[in-house]
Amino acid sequence: MTDRPSYYVTTPIYYVNDVPHIGHAYTTLACDFLARFKRLDGFDVMFLTGTDEHGQKVEKSADAKGVDPLSFCDGVSSRFKDLAEALHFSNDQFIRTTEPRHAVSVQDIWRRARDNGFIYEGKYAGWYAVRDEAYYAESELLTADTGEQVAPSGAPVEWVEEPSYFFKLSAFEDKLIALYEDQEDFVLPKSRLNEVLSFVRGGLDDLSVSRTSFNWGIPVPDADGHVVYVWFDALSNYLTATGYPDDSSADFQKFWPADVHIVGKDILRFHAVYWPAFLMAAELDLPKRVFAHGWWTNEGQKISKSLGNVIDPFDLIEEFSVDAVRFFLMREVPFGNDGDFSRSAFVNRVNADLANGLGNMTQRTLSMIAKNCDAMVPTAGELTAQDNALLDTIGVVLADVRMHMDRQAFHHALDVIWKQVAAGDVYISNQAPWTLKKTDPDRMATVLYVMAEAVRQLAILAQPIMPSSAALILDQLAVSADDRGFDKLGEAGRLQAGTKLPSPKGVFPRMNLDKE
Ligand code: ME8
User: Engineered SS bond to 218: which of 149, 202, 207, 228, CB 3.0-4.6 Å?
Assistant: First the structure.
């Protein structure tokens, strides 16, 4: 047992009606960035992702392919696992809602809510959008260009009438408002709280939480013919993965309640309204935060299969590199805002910050050391004010980076680190070790030592966003695997003069705008 603090971060579980695209990669990447950061910062982390496999949408997709739902789910779910591998995601678990342990968990939450008086039998008559797996009130519907009534998301709706169990959502209006008021930062970014509040203040109708017109789902306990509504089923995954309902489970005790559910803005209502209400009904602790990020478009257009402009993350990784893709997605757009993917923005960003930025700084430092210092960490003489200024500021940026990571302001965290890359660039240009080589070799050695130290610390800080490239840099500085945690920033992990270094290799190649 460790007494390290714990941190639990989750992605949405993705529907298996469609293969993974850049949007799914984005959310999981954000969680991976955070999980890796927390691990290096001394936390015991649980990072969960997975697939959402029940419901009418998945059943219809399987039917359309002429396969049984489970075989269909097996196929698509494994593509999401491949994506996790391709993007070097460090998830501790990959949950599938078709796993037997999940049915046990969902049924347990259901029974608790029911036994507390929050679930009752009735009949649903109203609008349903299969694409969103969501019920809509008549007043929420919009009229499409075709004249048809559609959901606010644009999804087609159908009229549904069936026997159903209802969840007494209406009983939670005041409790939810109190939650948003008391638990500051329950919803981030702050700007998104308004839409949640206005939805709740507008009055909450009871929610239909079982379906009887199809059977691809988890059976409702003690109610023949009913399957649990897919969102009640899906949201419960966050508990299942901790070992719930076994409340003696070490993971449940350590990791529940979750620190943050990171989701796209499209599913904020489910996470910030329904989920806390279900948990309150079952008398379970509430997650500490829901962060809703923005939406990616492709060269200005909505990403959709019908427009044929889906960005395939596997293609991007193949053409560029995993770390370039990871870096671009987190660095380019403030986390929380919408973003546009464009090839030119990608290439410009990666060339500026990686090839010319950290890459160039690393390359210059290591190749000068290889040529002029017997391929060993050089011996530093007395440090000047400029030397100390560079090392001291890099040594303390962690506090700022941590503050931004704790609020999921990932772009700010990267900005803080890349400001130090820029400071390193200014330092090396001012000190011009290539000139000192002839005039003052001892001073050159000191400058190169300071640069190597700067690169070491920046690479340690870059590990969560670019694990492979940062490892390649740290390998070239002969930093051992045990010396790569954040506790080794600053003085604690200083490079030792005389340490033999391997031959330097380029880490970030320049990218071309035109396709080869
Ligand atoms: O909603 N830009 O699954 P889903 C940014 N199964 N993010 C995007 C995106 C885009 N263009 N497209 C998709 C579901 N996403 C439910 C979740 S959780 C208990 C159940 C990301 O497959 C974003 O995170 O439709 C969004 O919320 C999620 O994929 C929707 O995935």
Answer: 228
Any ligand 1 atom below 6 A from CB of 231: no
| CATH class in words for 6-294 | alpha beta
CA distance 433 to 444: 5
For residues 412 and 457, give the distance between their C-alpha atoms in angstroms, rounded to a whole number. 18
Ligand 1 site-directed mutation target among 52, 77, 133, 235, most atoms within 8 Å of CB: 52
CA of residue 20 to ligand 1 center, whole Å: 10
Domain boundaries defined on the chain: 6-294, 343-493
Q: What is the DSSP letter of 463?
A: T
CATH class of the domain comprising 343-493: mainly alpha
Q: In what order do the strands lie in the sheet with 339-341?
A: 301-302, 296-298, 339-341
Which residue's CA is minimally distant from atom 8 of ligand 1? 23
**How far apart (Å, rounded) are the C-alpha atoms in residues 343 and 179?**
42
DSSP code of 379? P
Q: pLDDT tens digit string along 174-231? A: 999 999 999 989 999 999 999 999 999 999 999 999 999 999 999 999 999 999 999 9
180, 197 in Cβ contact below 8 A?
A: yes
Identify which of 296, 231, 310 has the alpha carbon closest to the alpha carbon of residue 264.
296
